[in-house]
Design brief:
Distance between the termini: 19 Å
Shape: rod-shaped
Helix content: over 70%
Largest sheet: none
Radius of gyration: 28 Å
Order of helices and strands: HHHHHHH
Number of strands: 0
Amino acid sequence: DTGSTIAMLAVASFVSILGFLVVFRSNQAWARFWEGADLMQQARGQWVCAVSSLFAFCTRDEAKWEKVATMQGQVIRLMSLLYAESIARLCNGIELERLGLNGMDMDQLVALDDPDNAEVKIELIVHWIQRIVVDNIADGVVTAAPPIVSRVFNELSSGCVKAQAAGKIKQIQFPFHYAQMLGVMLVVYTCGVPAMSAYMMGTCWGAMGS
């Protein structure tokens, strides 16, 4: 009859809209996840290139090998800390494995644990690495020409930008109103479909089969 036809059309329209919304949100979730993973991999690659280039620019003077080893140890530890903090920012502060912090200045460690610096840890570590590079250029440990060494700073900065861009996925959540509307529609679907099936089929067996 006319009532059953209208009910079937209403249910079909509702299910179609719900299906579209669910698929759209799933696609957005996958796109956001893939974007974040891609940005972090790009940042990691750029930081690895920066460290590799920096080590290649070090002096071959045997008299300065101890200074070279000290500088390389500091940079490696800070880069490990940098990547760990970048991932932790995306994972609600989960502590990740990293190299030891031996040789780091105590003032730096205190500044790193300061709650006021919680939002700028990545930038702070990048700044420390840049200062180490500049100091070692002045000491003659890094002997490449300044225009060539600038590549290290470019890679560090680009990686920092990529890590910050990945952080927006955590900071900017999926629209609240969209998520609430979808949740309500799923509840209505879960409760309403059995009732509509029983109404249209007329028998309990038909409702179960639908």
